[in-house]
Amino acid sequence: MTAPKSNHASDRETGKPEPIRAVDALHYVNTFMGSITNLDELLNEIMAVSKEVVGAEASSLMLYDDDNDELYFEVALGASGNQAVLKQEVRLKPGEGIAGSTLLTRKSVNVSDAQNDPRFYKTADQKSGFVTRSILAVPLIGRDKPVGVIEVLNKQDETAFTETDEKVLEIIARQATTAIENAWLIEQNIRAERLAAIGEAITGISHYVKNILASIIGSIDLIDTGIETADIEILRRSWPIFRRNSARIANLVEDMLTFSGSGKPVRRPCSLQTLIQEVVRAQESIATPRNVRLETSVPEDAPSVLVDERLLHRCLLNLVSNAFDAVSDGTGLIQVDVELDRERSELKICVRDNGVGIAKEIRTRVYEPFFTTKGSRGTGLGLSVSKRIVEAQDGKLTFESEIEKGSVFVLVLPVEVVSEESITSAGQGAPGGQQRETGVA
Description:
Layout: H1 8-13, H2 18-33, H3 39-53, E1 56-65, E2 70-78, H4 84-89, E3 91-92, H5 97-105, E4 109-111, H6 122-128, E5 135-141, E6 146-155, H7 163-229, H8 232-260, E7 268-271, H9 272-290, E8 293-297, E9 304-307, H10 309-326, E10 333-341, E11 346-353, H11 382-392, E12 396-402, E13 406-414, E14 417-418, H12 420-425
Parallel strand pairs: 8-10
Antiparallel strand pairs: 1-2, 1-6, 2-3, 4-5, 5-6, 7-9, 9-14, 10-11, 11-13, 12-13
Helix pairs in contact: 2-3, 2-7, 3-7, 7-8, 8-11, 9-10, 10-11
């Protein structure tokens, strides 16, 4: 939110007494302190008001770097000279320059003739091209440590800064200190929450990977035994377990790359029939031993469409995989239905199951990254990644669910129908084609 334009310049022109101008300025600062949430914007506004209310040509805010024990320019506002260079090149130790002296003594410093003051740091003028005549510097002192220094430079009427200027700037400095400390506190809390969330996510993923690796190691041991004893039956039973769990690791890596990726989808001609067949084929090793039915309905005359096939494949694989987790062995039914609305240029894919359904209290969290009800059997990335994939292609992903009756996830994408000549020339339509290697990670 941007604060309203200050009118202190017009106040000076109309000859308002200094105390009245000071009260007006403080009222203005109090007003926008609560309305601006961006710290950079807030500090710039505070310095603009500080410059105006005391009638200065320039103003600056230096913050204290506790790690390096030095002051650096955070805001530099001036009518002339290169103020930006100050932020890049000038740093002061406590006691160095008038700002450093202010920080060291924790007292305001009012200098009417800066060029002849032994504390004045002339390098700042040399770098910025600004000529400093007078300075009023006020320290920012926090609850338990120094925060920085506010400076205003050169009275516009070429007089010295007054005692009223000093008192007003000290009050503004206290408010600026509060704003900075609050912003730092919020930033620390956000960082702590992010670290906690990352730790929780890593823990969940680690348990998931550990379980998969345990199955892989177990199947490897059995495969070794089968090879040593030339027992084909052991090999026949062990190999599907190894293959299935290897695929789960590969899927996890794909989900993590897709979740963290920032690239744009690469749309190319894609055969809907082939796409759905590949998704089903990838799940057959799960469906067969569990006796779960996996049915599809794709119009026989479904044309090729322009989509990012690799990402759409990943999205559907996640949705079908989630459906498998919801259904029961022997009675489970998963349906993948495809509809193409040519008039709306819209592709609709429904993934339906007759599983346990989604409890009402968690329905608002299903797309939340790393949220899972599967314990160490899930990562909480599947649905989050699927939603991100769909929205990246200007589509939407919705769902409906009923406890003990099942759920349906509906994927809707705007698509462009392409001719069969296009898909042939692009080398599409065959499983494992080059297009599967394109798109974003």
